[in-house]
Design a protein that fits this description.
193 residues; mainly alpha; 3-stranded parallel β-sheet; 9 helices
Length: 193
C-alpha cells in the first residue's frame, strides 16, 4: 500500500524529469496493490504529472489493483485536468464525505478525550460540538485548547468564554456603502451613478 499527498507526487515527477527517470517512477508506483493519493486536484494544470499519473493509473487498474483518490471537489469540478483522467476518475465510486453532525462531533470529542486520558466536563464537549462545525481538525484544535484551559482554569464558564474567542468567526457586516463601492467598481461607474 502506498499513500502520498499529490504535491509530493508532483515533486517526485519533477525530480524524475530532471533526472530522466520517469520510467523508474512509473514502474515503482505500478508495483503497489493499493495506491492512495490525497488532494488529487493538485494535479490540475500539470501536464507531465498528469501524463505519468495516467500511465500509473492504467497499469494499476489493468492489473486489478486499487486506487483511492481524495479531493476537495468532484472530478467534473476540477479544472485543467485531461479529459481521459477525468473520465477515469468518474468511472470509479465517488463518495461525498460530509462534515459530521452534532452527534458525530460529540462521539469524536469523547473518543479523543478518552485517548488523551483526560477528564473534561460534558458541558465543555457539548459547547465545542455545538460551535465547531467546519472540520475535524478544527474540532481537535478546540478540544486541545479546552483541555489546556480547563487544567489551568478549572471552570467550565471561563473555558467556554475563552474558547469563544477561538471558535467564533467575526461577523461580517455589509453596509450599503460597501455594496455601492463594489458595484460601482465592478461596472466601472462612479458611486453617484
Amino acid at each position: 500500500v502506498k499513500y502520498i499527498p499529490c504535491p509530493n507526487f508532483t515533486s517526485q515527477i519533477i525530480t524524475a524529469i530532471r533526472n530522466q527517470s520517469i520510467e523508474k517512477i512509473v514502474e515503482e508506483y505500478s508495483n503497489f496493490d493499493v495506491f492512495i493519493v490525497d488532494d488529487i486536484e493538485f494535479i490540475a494544470g500539470k501536464e507531465r504529472t498528469q501524463e505519468v499519473f495516467f500511465r500509473v493509473f492504467n497499469d494499476l487498474t489493468e492489473n486489478g489493483k486499487q486506487i483511492v483518490l481524495s479531493s476537495d471537489r468532484p472530478p467534473r469540478a476540477i479544472e485543467n485536468i485531461e479529459e481521459r483522467l477525468r473520465s477515469r476518475f468518474e468511472g470509479g465510486m465517488i463518495a461525498d464525505i460530509n462534515l459530521p453532525d452534532f452527534e458525530e462531533r460529540m462521539a469524536i470529542l469523547e473518543r479523543k478525550v478518552e485517548e488523551a486520558n483526560v477528564i473534561l466536563p460534558e458541558e465543555i464537549l457539548n459547547f465545542i460540538a455545538q460551535h465547531v462545525r467546519k472540520s475535524i481538525r478544527d474540532l481537535e484544535g478546540a478540544l486541545t485548547r479546552a483541555i489546556v484551559l480547563f487544567e489551568k482554569e478549572k471552570s467550565v464558564k471561563k473555558v467556554q468564554k475563552k474558547l469563544k474567542q477561538f471558535i467564533e468567526e467575526p461577523k461580517k457586516r455589509i453596509s450599503p456603502e460597501k455594496i455601492i463601492s463594489v458595484v460601482s467598481e465592478f461596472y466601472n461607474l462612479s458611486k453617484n451613478e
